[in-house]
Write a structure and sequence with these properties.
Elements: E1 4-13, E2 19-27, E3 30-33, E4 39-48, E5 51-58, H1 61-81, E6 85-88
Antiparallel strand pairs: 1-2, 1-6, 2-4, 3-4, 4-5
């Protein structure tokens, strides 16, 4: 991908227990002609190692960007539907694949109830001091 303008990563575990880091890259959206004189938008995406770089076409560059982000979401959902896990980087907190910003699932429970006692990263909570946030 020539110009990457957004990048993120997730810790993953496949159904066989193999762990890896999935790297999302989004390239700069661009316009392209379709051969009939019409201009459409396109945007390159990759989710290594789950799929290589692809360009998603849309009605314009914004539409192509939105479609590509949804492609990433669907690929991660398919991965979890087949027994994989997607975690917020550096934790064992699952990513909320329905969240528009791919945030960790942050249920209103104390950290000691999250994950496995055998995994020190499992008990991490994104709350300060492992306590629920107040939205006053």
């Amino acid at each position: 991908m020539d110009k990457v303008f957004a990048k993120s990563s997730f810790d993953c575990r496949d159904r066989d227990g193999n762990e890896f880091v999935a790297i999302v890259q989004i390239g700069v959206p661009f316009e392209q002609e379709d051969g009939h004189g019409r201009v459409h938008g396109a945007c390159p995406f990759s989710l290594e190692p789950l799929f290589p770089e692809v360009s998603i076409a849309g009605g314009d560059t914004f539409h192509a960007l939105c479609l590509g982000i949804e492609l990433i979401r669907k690929a991660l959902r398919a991965f979890t539907a087949h027994g994989g896990m997607v975690y917020f980087r550096g934790t064992r907190t699952p990513v909320d694949l329905d969240s528009p910003s791919f945030l960790p699932i942050d249920e209103p429970i104390f950290a000691r109830f999250l994950g496995s006692p055998d995994d020190p990263t499992a008990a991490r909570s994104s709350w300060p001091n492992g306590r629920p946030r107040r939205f006053d």
